[in-house]
Each structure stands twice: as C-alpha cells, then as structure tokens.
Amino acid sequence: MDWLAALGRGGLAVSARLGRANLLMLAMLGGLAELVRRPRLLLEQLMSVGVLTVLIIAVSGVFVGMVLGLQGYYILSRFGAEATLGVMVAASLVRELGPVVTALLFAGRAGSALAAEIGLMKATEQLSGLEMMAVNPQHRVLTPRLVAGILSMPLLAALFSMLGVYGGWFVGVGLLGVDDGTYWAQMQSQIDWYEDVGNGVIKSVVFGVVCTWIAIFQGYDCVPTSEGVSRATTRTVVHSSLAVLGLDFVLTALMFN
Amino acid sequence: MATRLSRHGHEVPAQHHRLITSPMSRPPPSEDILVRIRGLKFYRGQRAIFDGVDIDIPRGGVTAIMGPSGTGKTTLLKLIGGQLTPDAGTIEVDGQEVHALSTRELYRLRMRMGMLFQSGALLTDLNVFDNVAYPLREHTKLNPSMTRKLVLMKLEAVGLRGAHQLMPSELSGGMARRVALARAIALDPMMIMYDEPFTGQDPISMGVLVQLIRRLNDAARISSIVVSHDVAETCEIADLVYVISNGKVIESGSPQALHEGGGEWTRQFMGGLADGPVPFHYPAPGLESDLFGESA
Amino acid sequence: MSKTRQIEIWVGAFIAAGFLALFFLAMQVSNLGTVNSGDSYTVLARFDNIGGLKVKSPVTLAGVEVGRVLDIYYDAEDFRAVAVLGIYSQYDTIPDDTFAKILTAGLLGEQYVGLDPGGSEQVLKEGSEIAVTQSALVLEEVIGQFIYGKAQEGAN
Fold it and tell me: Helices marked H in chain B — which ranges?
C-alpha cells in the first residue's frame, strides 16, 4: 500500500510541476510584445546564451567531425567506398550529431548558467523586488532568455555541423588522401537540402525550446536557497539531456521514416 | 485573559487580541486607515501561517509588526503587496481591495508601494545609479538629465550619492539596504514596507537605518510598515506595534504600553527573556527518567 | 568602446557566423546549390511497372541529369503507374517520340529514368506524354524467365 501511495504522490508532484511549467511558458509568451519594444534585452541575452556558448560548440564540432572522418574512413575503405566519406560525415552531422550534441552542450553550458542565474535572482529576492516595482519579472527577465535560447540553438547547431564537415574534410582529404572533389560532390548529390538540412534545423529549434524552457523553469521553480539552486542546475542538465535524447528519437521517427 | 501559549497555535484561547492603551502612548498620527486587513487566513500546506488576523495600519505613521522568527511576517508583506493570495479574508490598501484588482490595477497600486527586502534585492548586474534609476526609467518618461537629478537626490537622502558608480557586490550589507531604500522611494510612494530592516546590521548601520526610516516617514509623509523582531530598534521608531505569534495578533498598542502592560508572553518577547510562557526546554520527559530510566 | 557596443558587435558576429553556417550547409553540403531550382516543365510517362523508382529520382538523357521525378501515382483506369517527370526548362529540344525506360545505377543501385531521344521534329512540351516506355527490370521476373527458358530447352 505504501508504494502505491508513494507512486500516487510522485505522479501528482510530476503533473503539478508540468502544469507549473506550462503556465510559466504561457506567461513568458505573454511577454513577447514587450520584448519587441525592448530589443536591447534580447541582445544582452543573445550575448550570454549564444556568444558565450560558441567556443565549446566550435571546438567540439571540429573534433567530432575529425573523429567521424577517421572512423568513417576505416569502415568505408573496407568496402572500397571511401568516396562516400563526405556523405557519411555530413549526413551524421546534419541529421543527428549537429542538433543533438549541440543541445547537450548547450544544456551543460548555457542551460545550467541560466538556471543558476534565475535561481539566484529568486533566492536574493530580485524577482520579488521587480514584482514590487510593478515590473513583471516573467516578462522582463524570463522571456528574453527564452527567445535568445530558441534563436541561438539552430545557429549553434549549424556552426557545429559546418565545422564538423570541415573537420572530416581535414582528416579525410588532408590526412588520408580521399579526393577533394569526390568528398564534396558525393556530399552534394546525396544530402538533400530540405530532407536533411531542413529537418536538422527543425530539430535544433525544438531542442532550443525544450532546453531553454527546462533551464528557465528549473531556475524559476527552485527552492530559493543555495542548495535549491545547485539542485536546479543539476536537474537542468539531467532533464534537458534526457528530453533531447528522447525527443530526438521521436523526431527522427517522424521525419525520416 | 489567558495569553499562555502552547506550541500549537490553535490552542491559543484568546480570539481577540488585547488592545492596550495607556495615557503615555503616542496617539496614531491620524485616524485615516491606509491598510485594512480583515479575517486574514493563509495556509502553507496544512500549517496555518495566519489564522484570522485583523490589522489596521494608519496613514502617516510607523507601524511595526513584531513576532518571533517563522511567524510569517514577510509573508504578511507579500500578501499586502499582492504577491501572495490569502486563503480567506480581505486586504485593502488605500481603499482598494488588493486581491480583487486586475493585474494592471495591481501594478499601478504597486507603483505607490515601496518595499525594502531583507537582502536589498538589488539587481546584481546594474550599478547603484542604474538600480535606483530602474523604476524611474520603467514607469516614467523623464529625460535622462531629469532622471539623473532625481536619482542623485534619492541617493543623497540615504547618504550614498558618492557611491553611485559602485556595483552591488561592492557594497556592505547596510549600504545595499540604503541603496534599496533609495530605489524604493524613487517613485515617491505613499508607503514603504520594510522587511527585517535591522537584521544582520552592525550597530552603526542599524542606527543609520533607524534614523532614515523615521526621517523618511516624517519628512516625506510616507507611511511605514516595519516587520521585525529587533525589539529595541523597532520600538524606538514605531508609533504602533502589532505582536503576532502562531498566526494570530496577540496584542497591539504603542511600544510603551506593550512594555508596561503587555501580557506575560509579550513581556517575554519584548524583554528577550529566555524562559517564560515560551519554555526554554523543548517538551521532553523528565531528565531523570531520560537519563536513568529504561531506554526507549 | 562602450560595453553595449561591444555586446552588439559580438552578437552581430555570432548571428552572422550562424547564418553563414546555415548558408554553407545549404549550398556546399546539400544539393540546394546544384538543383536547377524552379523552372521545369512536366511530362508524363506511363509504365507497366516502375520497380523501385521514387519521387526525386533523377531523369537522365545520355547520362546527363535533365530532370527529376516529381510524382508517381497509379492510374486505376489502365492499371499502370504514371510518373510525372519534371524536365529542366533549358532542355527544351527533346523530341516527342523519345523513349523512356527505368534503369538501375549499378547492379543494386538506385533506379532512375533514362531517356532515349527519337527522331521527331516535334519536341516535348508541358503536359506531353511519352508514348513508348520500358518498365523496370524486376529481378524475380528475370530469373523466373531464365528458369522457364531453361526448362523449355530441357523439354525440347
């Protein structure tokens, strides 16, 4: 009986949290009109959410591409199909690794920072303070962060994929002697603009919404103590990663079946 | 009337608090009531934070709400400011029922309320000047030079005009609270709510804050609500004191009257006595039986 | 340089780099750069069996890609498959008695439509129909015919 009660309690807590997350989303969407009038708020957040994440994305992109080039070459050369190395590198990056790895890195770099920042603002009563100054903190503080996250993610994912393709090119063409023209030509003939690149962009937009939403919600919903903030950042990374991987499966099944 | 308290609020027999008037008490500055709280009930989970509280806060005076830690004093300020919604009862501020207002009206009302948070609640990414200018830029269309003059005047009032370039992280706790006070008065509100203004302050900044609250109240005709458990400082400036404990108003009156004529509990609280109606010992079986008796 | 200006420059650079990367993915990595976008005219071709032909499979003439398969549907009246071929408009001198057949690239590769030009003076236009077609080779049928042929030989 006890475990049944525990299950019920857990279920209720989860659905209550989901409800609060949805209400928060609605409240943030209500701040969009205000954001249009104050683009500067968005600019600041693009800086901290987007620009500061570029470095880790760029470095990871190059290395992931290089590894793909290396591994791909060894496998493909067994079948005498080194010519399709470009296709393999580009397809894995554009369809899967670009959006997914970018989202995972984003959750670790920008998401945890967002959660901690908002959690601290809550713990130090800055959010309450804004409210008592007759400023809606959800509109003023949260909406710009949400929009910045959603805008940044596809750009970051595109950067990741581009640098990855060059990383694979560096290893495949530069070090292992795949023909330069073949690398690009095979890629271009096999990768479809809409089906591969477009779906990758759609994926990364969805991940952008989910990761930023989770980070903001965890920060906003945290227990306003130092322990609560640290738990919120941990939860942000764990929940975002799980959500990204789960959603990736669903999206892939929907898009490429 | 029994004011003896057990540890559980619902066992308090007194339904109506004692209003003590003594000839020595300062009369409230006017009979005009700014904040009127009736039958306020607020629960957090199963626990009653407020269980039927009536409070009248007169306009133009310094009203103190006192009580031990954890009696929901901060919660009371948040209820008045409309950040929390009561489970029952009404709160009127300046004739408007706070929780019946639309969001827009509530925000308009809040522009006329200032609140000083315990931590100051300064925005950490803005410097002192921008923090004080924030409500002005937000709610008025003043030009930059006018804003600058106003901000510097407000900072002058709290003695921190020279610190306007500092970041909040460079301020001491007392200075941060004074900056927050300058921000709270930026829009010339009709009232300011102080949340534990004296907690964690050294004697000098405490004295400065005591002075400031009284001066702002008298000079700028701003009504003040001070929530605190620092008895001495609060009594120094308060015109009217409400003592709350276990979700109820226990007593109210002028500071002197409470010192002299308060019930047993109030005397313990005001005097800071270790033992009294609130026992020193947490309820336990006898020491002897605990030490030498059968182990449970 | 003021702090906001610095932020503006950084954010501007970030957005520019992001869009550059998207543009790169579109033009350099995917087929958007090589697709003859937009202008094409459609020609119908009926096949008894289209085998593994798919929408977007290439249409070639003398090995050069001159179009793509836009749509494939089944015509319930004559029980045949109709492939709608989009021929790029610069190839506007293909004779209307051209022969269309479904071919396979390599032994197990993708299937595509190959055109064999005829000798007519008239050219294919929007909405024309290719009269002579050859269906896809279905491996089982080929093998089946081969075995049947061998059996016949043995019987004789």
Answer: 73-80, 103-111, 128-139, 144-157, 173-184, 203-219, 231-237, 255-261, 264-271, 287-292
Chain C residues whose C-beta is within 8 A of a chain A C-beta are 4, 7-8, 10-11, 13-15, 17-22, 24-26, 28-35, 56
Spatial distance between the Cα atoms of B239 and B29, rounded to a whole number of angstroms: 8
Domain count for chain C, please give it. Answer: 2
**pLDDT of B17:** 56
What pLDDT does C38 receive? 62
- The B residues from 85 to 144 touching A (CB cutoff 8 Å) are 107-108, 110-111, 113-115, 117-119, 121-124, 134-135, 138-139
Same domain assignment for residues C100 and C49: yes
* A94, A155, A200 member nearest C14 (Cβ): A155
Instruction: Judge if C22 and C54 occupy the same domain.
Output: no
Measured in angstroms, the CA of C87 and the nearest CA of chain A are apart by: 18
Q: Is pLDDT of B271 > 80?
A: no
Which tens digits make up the pLDDT trace of B136-160?
Answer: 988 888 889 999 999 998 898 888 8
Task: Output B33 or A146, whichever has higher pLDDT.
Answer: A146
Q: Is C153 a domain residue?
A: no
Looking at the domain assignment, is residue C105 inside a domain? yes
Residue C60 and residue C1 in one domain:
no
Residues of A numbered 164-193 whose beta carbons fall under 8 angstroms of chain C's beta carbons: which are they? 165, 184, 187-193
Q: What is the mean pLDDT of chain A?
A: 92
Q: Which residues of chain A lie closer than 8 angstroms to B138, CB-CB?
A: 133-135
C14 and C54 in a single domain? The answer is no
Per DSSP, which regions of C37-104 are E strands? Answer: 40-47, 58-61, 64-75, 80-88, 99-104
Q: For residue B115, list chain A residues with Cβ-Cβ distance below 8 A.
A: 129, 132
Cα–Cα dist A168/A193, whole Å: 20
| β-pair partners for C99 | C116, C132
**Residue C13 domain boundaries:** 1-30
Taking Cα atoms as reference points, which of A191, A167, A140 lies closest to residue A35? A140
**Pair C25, C64 in one domain:** no
Contact C92, C128 (CB under 8 A): no
Instruction: Looking at the structure, tell me whether residues C49 and C81 fall in a common domain.
Output: yes
Residue C155 counted as domain residue: no
Between A80-84, A111-115, B12-16, C9-13, the lowest mean confidence (pLDDT) is in B12-16
Cβ–Cβ under 8 Å, residues A49 and A114? yes
Residue C53 predicted with pLDDT over 90: no
- The answer to whether the complex's ipTM is over 0.95 is no
Would you call A44 an interface residue with chain C, using a CB distance cutoff of 8 Å?
yes
CB–CB contact A191 C29 (8 Å): yes
Q: For residues C112 and C136, state if they share a domain.
A: yes
Residue A27's pLDDT band, with cuts at 50, 70 and 90, is very high
- Within chain B, how many helices (H) and strands (E) appear? 10, 11
Q: Would you state the pLDDT for residue C18?
A: 92
Residue B276, class by beta-carbon neighbours within 10 Å (0-12 exposed, 13-18 middle, 19+ buried)? Answer: middle
Do C24 and C60 have their domain in common? Answer: no
**pLDDT (tens digit, 9 = 90+) per residue, C100-112?**
888 887 655 678 8
Mutate to test the interface with B, among A9, A26, A125, A225 (most CBs of B within 10 A): A125
Of A213-222, B200-209, C67-76, the poorest mean pLDDT is in: B200-209
Decide if C72 is inside a domain. Answer: yes
Cα Rg of chain A (Å, integer): 21
